[in-house]
Amino acid sequence: MPARLEIEGGIPLRGTVKVSAAKNAALPALAAALLTAEPLVFPNLPDLQDVRTMIRLLQTLGATIDRNDARASVRVARVLKDEAAYELVSTMRASVLVLGPLVARHGSARVALPGGCAIGVRPIDQHLKGLAKLGAEIAIENGYVVARASRLRGASITLDMVTVTGTENLMMAATLAQGTTVIENAAREPEVSDLAACLNAMGGRIDGAGTSRIEIEGVPTLAGATHRIVPDRIEAGTLIVAGAITRGDVTVSDLVPDHLGAVLAKLEECGVGIEVGSTWVRVRGPERPRPTDVVTSPFPGFATDMQAQLMTLLGLADGQSRVTETIFENRFMHAAELVRLGARIETEGSTATIRGVRHYQGAQVMASDLRASAALVLAGLAARGRTEVARVYHLDRGYERMETKLANLGARIERRT
Ligand code: EPU
Predict the structure, then answer these.
(1) Least C-beta-crowded within 10 Å: which of 204, 220, 266, 368?
(2) How many C-alpha atoms does 330 have within 13 Å on its Cβ side?
(3) 128 Cα to the center of ligand 1, angstroms
(4) Contact 40, 227 (CB under 8 A)
(5) Distance between CA atoms of 47 and 324, rounded to whole angstroms?
(6) How confident is the model at residue 118, as a pLDDT?
(7) Which atom of ligand 1 is nearest to the CA of 28?
(8) Catalytic residues
(9) CA–CA separation, 181 vs 255, rounded Å?
(10) What pLDDT shows up at residue 266?
(11) Is the pLDDT assigned to residue 5 strictly greater than 80?
(12) In the predicted model, is pLDDT for residue 114 greater than 90?
């Protein structure tokens, strides 16, 4: 039976908790190891299921990995295979991040098309369009993207929509292209800037990451480097909401406050006490949150990856809130589960209307994706009585030792297998 979490709710969390390195920065940084024959070293690789999956994928392509606790060294002396098989890509869409590096270094790639997932259709047309602009020949054969190029050439690429992994894939491909590439309408997420920092440490020449115009001057080869991965702003935001929703007093440390601007602003609107330090945030939960409206958008807007967690807090607010999801078309799966805990939520298209209740009541619920499972854990922490969150493997994909961190803050939470 897959593992589940049992939570006795209603305990205000107290203390200090450290944020781990970001999943969504670690995955592209690992893929970047394909761009050089020398070792790429990460002093703080998070221990997550998705990271393990990416490592497995890199190993099938020829990587050797040396891991010692959080320190990991990844070396792809030679690319031995250019295929990302469906078994792996279908368990983790971010596998598609090997496409750009493989074509750039090896001249060819076969990557399974990811297909839809629990939160939406999620096509990769922008990745492919950009690679074609860089001179790759692209074909779809038997469910696989097949890309070939002897040497990529710099180009001007305007993305039709803001895509995080799309920007990352193209940025990695362009580092080894001949000439200069400009990506317009690039994603500005901190994870994109972190990847650019990693690539620049390897000898890349990338300018403008963190803005919507990224310029990449291609270089013939990249070298090994040591890169410290940026803190996980979504884990940080989730822990901050844990403090708020339990009426606790929690300091979340080892984070970058600037990466949390939109989340902290919303929480303050809800009456959550927020104190911001240089690398920490102290949160004090209100007796009852105030309602608010939120619309998800690309960074620096309110992240879709924090939408489920905020909705959980708003479920307890003193009045009516509205949450509008603009990034993914099916990212309200947590709403029906929150209703099992007593929430009053109605969804219509991309908008959820939430009428706050005073308390959640413990119940059995089921996680459907990573952030939905985080939301259910948060609800369980606040609920009266016992909550059981099934399918916790979703949580393990992207949160490092979540239940241990919460237990250290006083939560009564246990993993059962
Ligand atoms: N899109 C297209 N065509 C493309 C690419 C994207 O239509 O070629 C659409 C998507 O379908 C979606 C929107 O554009 O509607 C944005 O998608 P994006 O490409 O930015 O998402 P992603 O790169 O696949 C990353 C994170 C997600 C996070 C989103 C949005 C990683 C590994 N994943 O996904 O993280 O939700 O950006 O910020 O970085 C999570 O961690 O739980 C998670 C889902």
Answers:
(1) 220
(2) 9
(3) 15
(4) yes
(5) 32
(6) 77
(7) 32
(8) 117
(9) 32
(10) 98
(11) yes
(12) no
Q: Which of 89, 129, 164, 234 to mutate to test the pocket of ligand 1 (most atoms within 8 A of CB)?
A: 164
Evaluate if residue 274 carries a pLDDT over 80.
yes
Instruction: Give the pocket of ligand 1 (CB within 6 Å).
Output: 24, 27, 93-94, 120-127, 161, 163-166, 191, 304-305, 327-328, 370-371, 398
The conformation of residue 12, written as its DSSP 8-state character, comes to: P
At 245-260, the pLDDT tens digits run 999 999 999 999 999 9
Query: In angstroms, what is the span from residue 123 Cα to ligand 1's centroid?
Result: 9
Largest CA distance in the chain: 62
For 84, the token pair is 């990302």
Atom index in ligand 1 nearest the CA of residue 189 equals 38
Q: Whose CA is closest to atom 4 on ligand 1?
A: 124
Separation of CA 8 and ligand 1 centre (Å) = 34
pLDDT at 311: 98
CB contact set of 249 (below 8 Å; sequence gap of 6+): 12, 13, 14, 243, 282, 283, 284, 285
| Two tokens, residue 35 | 């761009």
Question: In sequence order, which residues have a C-beta less than 8 Å from that of residue 195 and are 6 or more positions away?
Answer: 25, 28, 29, 32, 168, 171, 172, 209
Q: What is the pLDDT of residues 327-373, one digit of tens each?
A: 998 899 999 999 999 999 999 999 999 999 999 999 999 988 999 99
> 309 by DSSP, 3-state: which?
helix
pLDDT bin (cut points 50, 70, 90) of residue 14 is very high
**Cα 400 to ligand 1 centroid, rounded to whole Å:** 21
Give the whole-number percent of the chain exceeding pLDDT 70.
Answer: 100
Cα 410 from Cα 350, distance rounded (Å): 36
Residues with Cβ within 8 Å of 67's Cβ and at least 6 positions away in sequence, in order, are 45, 73
pLDDT at 202 over 80: yes
Ligand 1, closest atom to CA 128?
8
Residues 117-160: pLDDT tens digits?
A: 777 778 999 999 999 999 999 999 999 999 999 999 999 999 99
Cα 120 to ligand 1 centroid, rounded to whole Å: 10
Closest approach atom of ligand 1 to CA 327: 15
Q: What is the pTM of this model?
A: 0.98
Q: Whose CA is nearest to atom 39 of ligand 1?
A: 24
- Going by pLDDT thresholds of 50, 70 and 90, the confidence category of residue 86 is very high
**Relative to the CA of 369, which ligand 1 atom is closest?**
42
Q: Ligand 1, atom 44: nearest CA belongs to which residue?
A: 305
Atom 10 in ligand 1: residue holding the nearest Cα? 122
